[in-house]
Design goal:
By secondary structure, the protein is an all-beta fold. The chain is 0% helix and 43% strand.
């Protein structure tokens, strides 16, 4: 993408995307849509059939909003932004091993719906100070998994009906979790 590019699809009266991109038949484990220019955005698309990363946010100040992302296993979207990477609001993410992977320190995941993922949100290695805010995470395995990354912040999320822990992290990984709602399911709200 070029700097400032916006890929937009119209939304229907119910707020759902009207444009669907089917990546069935793509191979090689490549990212289906890659935002590698500052200020790029994807708004209001539905993707299906992508075998690996339907959207990758590699540049700073990128955004993915009001999208429906359906996986067939494999890794879901990924945020590697150093600053200003915003995944949300309004995304609906299902069917991935990781609903989203956060790998950059400037990533925020806000006001989305994650369901039927093995892990909804994975905070990995260099995503220090990532913000996870006002998401609904339900009917999957683990809610939020933090691996070797200090300082992620989890505020006002709802985690419901998970078969694993709502939030899991390495014992040595500090994180801040406030005002989250944990309801039925899982072995325990916190593990780590």
């Amino acid at each position: 993408t070029s700097a400032g590019t916006t890929i937009t699809g119209p939304l229907g009266p119910d707020g759902r995307p009207l444009v669907k991109i089917d990546f069935a038949g793509t191979s090689g484990g490549l990212t289906c849509i890659q935002l590698d220019a500052v200020g790029s955005r994807v708004i209001g698309l539905e993707t299906v059939g992508c075998s690996n990363q339907p959207i990758s946010m590699k540049a700073d100040d990128t955004q993915v909003a009001y999208c429906v992302l359906r996986g067939i296993g494999g890794v879901g979207p990924q945020c590697q932004s150093a600053t200003g990477g915003l995944f949300g609001p309004g995304n609906d993410v299902a069917g991935f091993t990781d609903g989203i992977q956060l790998k950059g320190p400037g990533c925020t995941v806000a006001s989305n719906h994650f369901h039927e993922n093995a892990t909804a949100i994975s905070v990995i290695v260099s995503a220090a100070n990532a913000i996870i805010l006002k998401n609904v995470i339900r009917d999957g395995g683990v809610g939020v998994r933090v691996l070797n990354t200090p300082g992620p912040k989890l505020y006002f999320n709802t985690l419901h009906g998970l078969s694993g822990s709502a939030i899991t992290s390495n014992a040595s990984t500090p994180l801040e979790a406030r005002n989250n709602l944990f309801t039925s399911g899982g072995a325990c709200p916190f593990d780590g």
